[in-house]
Structure formats: structure tokens, C-alpha cells
Amino acid sequence: MKTKSATLKILVILVFVTLTCIYLLPVYVMINASLKTKAEVDKREYLVPSPKPQFQNYPNVLLGGSEFKSTPLGRPLLNSTIISVSVTLLSAFFGGLAGYYLSRSKTRFTRILFILVGIALYLPYQAFIIPLVFMMSKLNLLLSYWGMILSYLILNLPLASVLLGTFFLSLPRELEEAAEVDGASRIQTFFRIVTPISWPAYASVGIIIFTQVWNEFFLALVLSSPTTRTVQVVMAEAQGTTLVLYNQQMVAALVSVSIPLLFFIFLGRYFIRGILAGALKG
Length: 282
What we know:
- This protein has about 280 residues and is an all-alpha fold.
- It has 13 helices and no strands.
């Protein structure tokens, strides 16, 4: 049994190492290509590292350089960060309030509303892109930061409400009843009792919404102006028609991926901490 167990462990480790290498191979190719010149990339030796890494490719792409023929990526990265962070915070705040109301109210109206909000999650936003653009135009928010933030908030608020409302349904009512006995209002109970123990749900919602807004392309293409373009729009425009600089595209891709990755790692730490705290408490 011990021999079989040791053999099985070695087999499992080999499988995980193989899958990890396969998963990380495209990332290695991206990093390797981002440090090469155009002539080295054209040789198609994707796995061979460059003898002279071209670290200047990164400031050229972010700030613009003599060899970079597209829009510098610094401003679009800032635009994407401002829009994604704002939408994530607003969705978590208003989604938490809406989800708490829908999960605690037992009227027929709230039950129907909960179902309608859930149905809204399955509607493709491309179906009402024209009314959305028309509404932003009437509010004089078209081609502005606030117009894009409000549009993304409208699209992601149902998701935040349903996810947080479903999580609130699993919380014990005794905590809220004890707070009410002590004289706390419903708002005080939500912010002082429910919110602190709901960080795992807020972390999950934040990761999902931030990633969706950061990677969204179609709505950003329609609603953005030259000064509010996001990183996804600029990357699509940087492909070129006759000349493709793959090394600079790899730099742009790595930089655009790094920010949501760091966001995921940061919130993932709190997510795991919340799960472990709940498990130890249970």
C-alpha cells in the first residue's frame, strides 16, 4: 500500500507539473517575444530567449517611442483602471444594499423583483446597446468617463445584487435579531453586522465585475472618445494592416493582463481568509 501510495503521489505530481508547464508555455512565449526585436520575432524562434533583451520595449509601449507607431498605452491603462475600479466599488455598494433588501424582504413584490433581476443576467447587453447609447446621449454623458461608468454599472448591478443577495440568504438571522434587540436600525445592522462577515462574497463579486469591465470591448468601443479609450480598444487598433509588431503587442498584452491579475491576487487573499475563518468558526 505504501509503495502504491508513493507511486500514485509521484504520478500525480508529474501530471500537475506537466499541466502547469503547458499552461505557462504561452505566458513564457509572450514574455520572451516582448523582449525581442522585430527581426528576432520574425525568425519564429519563440522558445529561444533573446541574447540582448529589449527592455526598452516596455517604456516605448507605455509612454510612446520612436519605434512605437500606435497610441501609447499609459493613458488607456489609466482610463481602464478608473472605469473598472469605479464600477466595481459602485456595483458592490449598491448591489449589497439591493441584495440585502431582496434577501430579507418577504413580500410578493420583492420575490418577483428578485426573479426579474435574475432573468436580467441572461440578457445580452448587445440587445439594448442602442437604447443605452440613446440614454447616455440624452443625459449628456456620451463619450465621457461618467457615461461609461454609468453604462457598466447598469449592466453589472443585477449580477452584484443576485450574487450578494444569495450569499445573504445563507447568513444566520440570529446575528441581525441580536443587533435589533440592542437597538440597531436596519441600516446599522447591514453596515456593522452583515457587511463585515460578507467580505468573501464582496471579494468574489469584485473579482468578477472588475475582470468583466476590464476585458469588455464592444461597449468601450461605442461609448469611448479618443481621451477615454480603454486598453482593450487601443490594443485592437494597434494590430495594424500591413505591419504587425508582435513584440510590442506582447508587451501591451502582458501589461493589460497584469493589472486584473494583481487585483485577483489581492482580493483572492481576503477571499481565502474569509473561507478559512468561516471553516474554523464552524
